[in-house]
Amino acid sequence: MIPAAFEYHRPKNVQDAIGILVEHGDEARVLAGGHSLIPMMKLRMAAIEHLVDLQDVDGLSGISIDGGRITIGAMTTQHELITHDGLATAAPILREAALQIADPQVRYVGTIGGNVANGDPGNDMPGLMQCLDASFTLVGPDGTREVAARDFYEAAYMTERSDEEILTAISFNATAGGYSYEKQKRKIGDYATAAAAVLLQKDGDTCTGASIAMTNLSDTPVFSEAAGAALTGTSVGKADIEAAVAAALSDIDPTEDNRGPVEFKRHVAAVVIARAITRAWSRA
Ligand code: FAD
């Protein structure tokens, strides 16, 4: 199918882009890589009258690592996340997760900003950003504000971002210790049936910190504080992992769809969470 008619805008700076969003309200939508929005428009699941393309807006791309703080411009592509050597050292879980998104063609144009702003529970970056305790920079007509990834997602396709705000950057601390992003999908290029992001810190044989978040197991990404707490202070043995998995499962609320019934999703979730913890611990 082809999308319904729309007017195309190509502003050069953030303020002009916001001006167009303010002028047209909920009839306008930002366009980044277009790899979530355009398919929705083609399927007539979204009818947008004004598309505000961010391609020419200055200052929205690139990765900077300043001391221990990493900042990624919203228009940075998933391909750039994979090929940036500094990022691979400072936060290797980004590359591991980005490599599991779709296929190279999608990753060449799909952006990190579009992936986190979209609000699709199937997107991989939101859960990862919650695991990293990332912060999102939103710019709107009333100025700039920071929103924690863990507070950003309200329901499927509903976020803390207002219609007139643009996500300009994402920032988080460089990671230390072990990491893993584990994803189970039906076939190469598919969205997750279930996925888990895990970061673990280790001192001697003891886990001194754990952060665990999940993808596509509720209508939002899920950060499980209880799962992390179940591992902290332990030696991450079999019983500790089982306790963390049980805690994580009590935080999710999957629904039946073409990826399977609820019982199957809970089973797959348990498998990917346990695998992610085991791999992260082996790397810690
Ligand atoms: P767009 O499609 O341009 O925008 C998506 C939404 O975010 C729109 O509502 C738009 O208005 C809003 N938006 C975009 N940027 C901003 C901004 N800076 N500020 C405010 N709002 C903004 N994703 C995964 O995570 N995992 C997968 O396995 C996966 N598989 C895919 C398979 C296929 C075949 C395809 C086509 C896509 C797949 N995707 C997957 C989605 C892909 O990663 C998208 O590129 C991504 O979700 C959205 O990024 P985008 O830059 O294309 O955003």
From TrEMBL:
Keywords: FAD, Flavoprotein, Oxidoreductase. One of its GO terms (molecular function) is FAD binding. It comes from the Bacteria. It holds the Pfam family CO_deh_flav_C. The keyword Flavoprotein applies. The keyword Oxidoreductase applies. This is Carbon monoxide dehydrogenase medium chain. The gene is coxM_1.
